[in-house]
Design goal:
Length: 416
């Protein structure tokens, strides 16, 4: 409780009391001395030392708080731009040059530097730390590329395939076949001993694995996903999803003195609870990513109607495993912002648990089967933007920068 205490006949009078306070209770000062002092001038926050501001900014876990921090004044905005949060940057590659835009801070701000930018490369995925899987030439030249340092780790262009189930003579049961990667995920950055690359491919196999020291990709076990739409790494496993919501789980294991790579394989026939069917003419595309907490695996369904201008809406589901039953359960997206793209999706906690979530998406869906990404003469950059999970505001926002179609690669989220 707040009390206004007035000295009156050696007693305290509670604020709000109906008892009148006699004038004699006030000291007899001239009127000018009894006036309230002028309000204090607003504090000048522009003089705070930059190192202190940087510590304050980096301690803010909430994205919204960081946005408000950057809006205080020009000095604070400069500190925010010098200490970018882990939000991904929008990477738009082409033969003419690769442009990179900050989502946080505004698209008009100076573009972040890219140490390892490669013109004409096709980007197949991105992982934290600045690593991306790229194809440097049209049909060959796979590599792990770090856009922060410029470091490049060559990846094989062939996969080792066993014929006739391994029943042929030892010298004749293995052949090397060309491979084309269309999407890829990384478990840990090189040169970590835990580094494994998983890729959705075309050719003699639809999925393959590689780790440092291997001269060829290793095909996935029998039952590899056909027409898988996306791939991610979560909880020690690689996960892929196909158009029927089947979930394929691959757990890599490195054993022996030679570091041999083996892969355990599981297929989940997921029940589809509370899913709405697509409207006539709609295309459905799917993305996989861990939730911001890291605990749940999410599937984002994107509904696209080419006749009505592109993306119309989204649905988000959480993988639930209970009593031997695996299902996709409708996920209430609150307090998170999702950036979805092929093998480059990422979720972030906004610190506002009760607020509707938000999804940023890229133009990376093409007609036909998922491998049609390899058959494009150009990659449009028009069907991209944002979508609020609020039922009161589900309109698609075209809030990402426009660009001419790329002649080399779809846009991706660069997880720096």
């Amino acid at each position: 409780h707040f009390y206004l205490m007035v000295v009156c006949s050696n007693k305290f009078v509670k604020h709000g009391s109906k008892r009148p306070i006699p004038p004699s209770c006030f000291p007899m000062f001239p009127r000018s001395e009894r006036q309230m002092p002028p309000p204090a001038a607003a504090a000048d926050w522009s003089g705070v030392h930059q190192d202190i501001l940087s510590r304050i900014f980096l301690s803010l876990a909430c994205i919204g708080d960081r946005v408000r921090f950057s809006a205080v004044n020009q000095q604070w905005r400069g500190v925010a731009l010098q200490n970018p949060p882990p939000l991904p940057w929008l990477l738009m590659p082409s033969t003419a040059g690769t442009s990179c835009h900050r989502i946080f801070g505004g698209f008009a701000d100076p573009q972040p530097p890219l140490a390892g930018a490669v013109r004409g490369a096709r980007f197949c995925g991105s992982s934290p730390g600045g690593w991306s899987v790229v194809v440097l030439h049209q049909w060959h030249g796979h590599a792990l590329l770090n856009l922060r340092s410029g470091e490049r780790v060559p990846l094989p262009d062939h996969v080792r395939v066993t014929l006739n189930g391994g029943r042929a003579p030892p010298n004749f049961n293995v052949i090397r076949c060309p491979i084309m990667v269309r999407a890829a995920a990384v478990s840990a950055p090189p040169p970590s001993a835990a580094c494994v690359v998983a890729a959705l491919t075309t050719g003699q196999t639809t999925m393959a694995f590689w780790r440092p020291g291997m001269d060829c990709w290793s095909p996935a076990p029998l039952g590899a996903p056909c027409d898988a739409q996306d791939l991610t790494y979560h909880d020690g496993c690689f996960w892929a999803v196909n158009p029927w919501e089947q979930l394929f789980c691959y757990k890599p294991e490195i054993a022996g003195a030679d570091g041999a790579l083996t892969v355990q394989h599981l297929v989940y026939q997921c029940c589809a609870d509370q899913m709405t069917p697509p409207a006539p003419g709609e295309i459905v595309s799917r993305y996989l990513l861990p939730a911001a907490s890291g605990e749940d695996l999410l599937m984002v369904k994107r509904f696209i109607d080419p006749a009505r201008g592109g993306t119309r809406r989204f649905e988000v589901f959480r993988l639930e495993k209970q009593l031997g039953r695996t299902s996709w359960r409708l996920y209430k997206m609150e307090g998170q912002v999702l950036f979805v793209g092929r093998s480059c999706s990422k979720a972030f906690d906004t610190g506002r648990s009760g607020n509707p979530g938000y999804i940023y998406f890229l133009d990376d869906v093409y007609g036909g089967r998922p491998m049609s990404v390899l058959q494009q003469n150009e990659y449009p950059c028009t069907d991209m933007g944002g979508w609020s999970c609020s039922p009161d505001d589900e309109e698609i926002k075209r809030c990402l920068p426009w660009a001419h179609p790329s002649d080399s690669s779809p846009s991706i989220w660069y997880l720096h």
